[in-house]
Amino acid sequence: MTKIFVAGHNGMVGSAICRQFQQSNIEVITASRKQLDLTNQTQVKKFFSLHNLDQVYIAAAKVGGIYANDTYPADFIYNNLIIECNLINSAFNFGVKKLLFLGSSCIYPKLSSQPIKENQLLNGFLEPTNEPYAIAKIAGIKLCESYNRQYGDSHNIDYRCVMPTNLYGPGDNYHPKNSHVIPALIRKFHEAKINNNKTVSVWGSGKPKREFLHVDDLAKACLHIMNIEKGIYLQNSEAMCSHINVGSGVDISINNLAMLIKQVVGFKGKIVFDQSKPDGSFQKLMDSSRANSLGWKPEIDVLNGLKMTYLHYVNSLSHN
């Protein structure tokens, strides 16, 4: 039986990957933070020495919103670098042949041409507010590529990288200050409905566009990309640009997104855009044609995805 370690199994992405393995004849190994400190090299080495793993999925990371990234830049770059270094190096030293590293669309330059292709990486300045996090994720990609280049043939290793667009779905963070746009708006509209408020305030003009992908679609993409035959994968990537974008391929304005969430939640009042608040980049759409050409396409459209996510959110409230 194949033994797979999912690092970060309690997070939104890690838990979605674990759900995909439930139907398969695979032994999924997980470890909580209390059981394994991924920033501790000695603990990580010991863990790998005990488990004789076949594959590793790295969904573990220190994450947060703009405020957290801007306030704790040292924590974000150090913790993410040390986690990925410990995991990738231990995977190699203990004979793991296949590994998947999950990055983030923030690795790309702030002024990337749209839609963003994989070869835009390292072609310009990053968004300053989350630069330390982005640098750590870029280092993770380059770690995987460097191990492949040095040991791919001699040790038959195959370490792959996936770059997801903005994600949403079960297990998302609904914190009032640190959540991303979809969970933030779901919470706002739900609380406004419960409290019979007349309006909901949304940051900015509503004009910027964003791309969103349901986390279950990403999890399916991760398994699909990991299971592509090595020769085919190498034909569709480059030694020093081997990562693969995973997105929905469509974007939606914040205005239209807010209207959809209002409809899904059942809020009857008005949406007010607070134009004193920043809009951010006007567009961030990824080119996912490489993933599509390798046989993966998303299955969950944004409306159905929002309906499922809202249902999950309401259920989680009733269990608190």
Question: Any overview of this molecule?
Answer:
The protein is 42% helix and 17% strand. The protein has helices spanning 12-21, 41-51, 66-71, 73-93, 131-151, 181-194, 215-226, 230-235, 254-265, 289-293, 302-319; strands at residues 2-7, 26-29, 55-58, 98-102, 158-164, 166-168, 199-203, 209-214, 244-246, 251-253, 270-274, 283-284. Helix 1 packs across helix 7 (215-226) and helix 2 packs parallel to helix 4. With 320 residues, the protein is an alpha/beta fold. The model has no long low-confidence stretch (mean pLDDT 94). It has eleven helices and twelve strands.
- Content of β-strand: 15-25%
Number of strands: 12
- What percent of residues adopt helix (DSSP H or I)? 40-55%
Biggest sheet strand order reads 2-1-3-4-5-9
Number of H- or I-type helical stretches? 11
Shape: globular
Summing up helix and strand content along with how strands pair, one would put the structural category as alpha/beta
**Unreliable residue runs:** none
N-to-C span: 37 Å
Mean pLDDT: 94
Radius of gyration: 20 Å
Sketch the topology as an H/E string, one letter per element: EHEHEHHEHEEHEEHHEEHEEHH
Instruction: Note the main sheet.
Output: 6 strands, parallel
Summarize the structure.
This protein is α/β, with parallel strands linked by helices. It has eleven helices and twelve strands. Strand 4, helix 5 and strand 5 (158-164) form a beta-alpha-beta unit.
